[in-house]
Structure prediction request, 389 residues.
Amino acid sequence: MVQPMSRPASITHTKEIVVLVVGEVPPPVTGQALMIQQFLRREYEGLRLVHVPLEFSRTTAEIGAFGLRKLALLLNTLLNILMARFRTGATVLYYPPAGPNLNPFLRDVALLLPTRWLFRQTIFHFHAAGLCNLYPSLSPTLQRLFRSAYSAPDLAIFTTQATAEGTEILEAKQQSIVPCGIPDHALPRRSWNTPAAVPVLLYAGILCEGKGVMVLLEACRLLHEHGEPFHLVCMGAFQSPDFQTAVESFIQTHNLQFHVTFPGVLTGSAKAKSFAHADIFCFPSHYSCESFGVVLIEAMSYELPIVSTQWQGIPEVTGKRGALLVPVKDHEALFQAILLLLRAPDLRQRMGTENRARYLDHFTDDVYCRHLSTALRTTAASAVQAVHL
Prediction:
């Protein structure tokens, strides 16, 4: 179903730019879906947003997977894009391309090839990283389709500079870096002066191998073997039953049953309390599509110190003063970083304070929506000027 966004009465511009936003919003909850939802919720002077939802995945387990149901949804989405284009007169197509996975790539090809030519401008927002890494593995026919679907966008938006590198094949006419941002829903956290009897480690995100969950459990195994008190909360949904079985087997084998809990996907006040009651945020990702890590700025907003990885855009997000970054897939280094913070509450407090300030300066929803809308307006205005020359 196409969802038009309302126009504020205060806008009187006759040259309002109509942008057709094609993208997913929750559920399921992903960083990309949250960012698109956030962008759509606001009103912007000179812009009118019209939304065509991508609704291929109902759960985390369905993300990137093929299914006959998705073929029917693909046709329906294509028809919705075409109807919205002619009904609203949209001149700009805003689209979030897939990551480096074949099924989402084929979906993009099926949607973009019949529609891009109908718009004066195409803007790609790369919430997922690594699309161009897929290109060398494709057959010559699929490589031609890749170039036809993705080449020469009027604007390519990336969340970090690191994920913009190596994308020359896109031949984007303009490029912009727009970091993600979230509303400040942080609850007052437990005082650093009254530490918990058992320090709480928090992970948030999809529960899968690529996000470093097994690496984190290996680090927790070492903490347990060293007699270090801790409790790990892994917030999120398992990507697959097989991975859940592997995780549960590991926990049983290493006697971590009383040290690790899995509350599932949490939202609202339950999610806020999990962040507010944590002592350290752990995110050892090596996920191929990782471009930013919205959960990192959630942790920052809650004044949490971070342990994460030197992976893709993560170092740009965390900076150097509020996070300890370790090599990917290195559970020993992860263990040492967590142990350092567990034994140094003053350091945890200093890092948390730095993260809260960094969030307020760079990663609020106000900053995100202002930068994103400016990038869209600037690109669209350049096309209008070119038409009049």
Summary: Residues 336 and 359 are 26 Å apart (CA to CA).
